Amino acid sequence: MKTLSIQSRQTIQRLGFGALTLLALITITPIVAIVGYIIIKGAPAISWQFLTAFPREGMKAGGIWPAIIGTVYLTLGTAIFSVPLGLGAAIYLSEYAPNNRWTRLIRLAIVNLSGIPSVVYGLFGLGLFVLFLKLGISILAGSLTLSIMTLPVIISTAEEALRAVPQSFRVVSISLGGTKWQTIQRIVLPQALPGILTGIILGLERAAGETAPILFTAASFFLPRLPGSPLDATMALPYHLFVISTQVPGMPVRIQFGTALVLLVFVLSMNLVATVIRSRARAKRQW
Amino acid sequence: MNKITIEHLTLTYSDGVEAISDINLNIPANAISVLFGPAGAGKSSLLRTINRLNDLADVEEVRGRVLIDGQDILSQKTDVIALRRKVGMVFARPVVLPLTIRANLTYALELAGEKRIERLDEAVERSLTLAALWEEVKDRLEESAFSLSGGQQQRLCLARVLANEPEIILLDEPTSGLDPISTGKVEASLQELKKSYTIILVPHSVQQAARASDFAAFLLQGKLIETAWGKNMFTTPHDRRTEDYVEGRFG
User: Fold this and answer.
1) Which residues, at least 6 apart from A87, have a Cβ–Cβ distance to it below 8 Å?
2) ipTM of this model?
3) Nearest CA distance, B186 vs chain A (angstrom)
4) Are strands B198-202 and B32-36 parallel, antiparallel or unpaired?
5) How many angstroms separate the CA of residue A164 from the nearest CA in chain B?
């Protein structure tokens, strides 16, 4: 084999680095392009009035306040149901479940649950919560539907965070006369908390941005006032965006992109919080 | 006086390995008993049976009896939590809990429901003093236990067991990861502690076994080969296999 000179080896190395940099740039191009495009097109629409007023003139003017509030309500409602349920399931799977057929069946169900298209959740929510349980098109029905969709994300990330806590901590705690539950409460959960919070936020972030599950269960085209109870329907950002982009002829593009920008900021700031929690915990962790 | 009496103990893991085969052994009170032998002798399995920590492992079957003060701790009726408070354990690798130094020491007492600050403070100082760590850490009790050196962490683990006021202390190669100076400190503590506790030590070397032994038991492949008082095992072993191991011909 011919030995390459130092120069040509360095050239090959430089070419390699160049190619990798290029690939990295290509990967981040879409996200930069999407965010940039939406900021440029949407920023002119953003004003205090846009954020705090009701829509006027058949959505073509005014603001998106009820849609913002509706998305906040739906996200909080989803958290109320999915966090305790998801955390409980994760603790069961990580700490208590024996490794048998039943547990494998539960895991299989969770994996499959996360693969179901979101519109199917919407249809299921319509059948179960809206019609059968007679909750009507409401924040409650929408939150329950979004909760089912969010659960697999919360369960799997929380379980992963719990499993990452070293087994030796559990053994030591039990050898000191701790019960299993004391060990979970005092050692395992606090150590897994940052990871669990990250999973919860990422799950809720998905819920906040989805349209299809609330389409038949919670969302309303236009409401003249804010929802007064969990049994009221609500406007919501993703659905509002869908409506003004497809259902209203002659809609000013500015408003569509303004709405998209608000939704994007809402979701990305949740993401930012999750990232901060995770990196802080990583810096502090000692095991 | 015998603190622990082991009768016909046989332990099988669920993968079919018989880790302990029909062991009969008396462990004296207020002494250091060393259980030694090569890897796979069943030393750790035996230790973990005495505080029922094997309950967490994939154990297929345990036969025989382990009597502590005459009570069979393998019985269904045993209060395992109370047993583990009475029988403390120090592991090979120091595992400090992700808490402060103080919280590591008060952990077990708080689990047991102790809330009185003066009792907890007293336990912290007493246990750290016994483990020869008080002078080094008395001004940094609120720091994370991870800020301690490896040797200090292991003495903290010993102190943590002592804070619980156990009657028996099990030590599974407690100095295997420590430097000679730290090892010396731990061994010195044990010599002090044996006056009030029953200590079972799985040493990390034959030399340590010989240094620490008041009573020694040699195990090989799950079987008890021989026992002897004092250092006799290391000067005049009876069994050929013990002799070979003590003199370094295998293991």
Assistant:
1) A154, A158, A196
2) 0.90
3) 19
4) parallel
5) 14
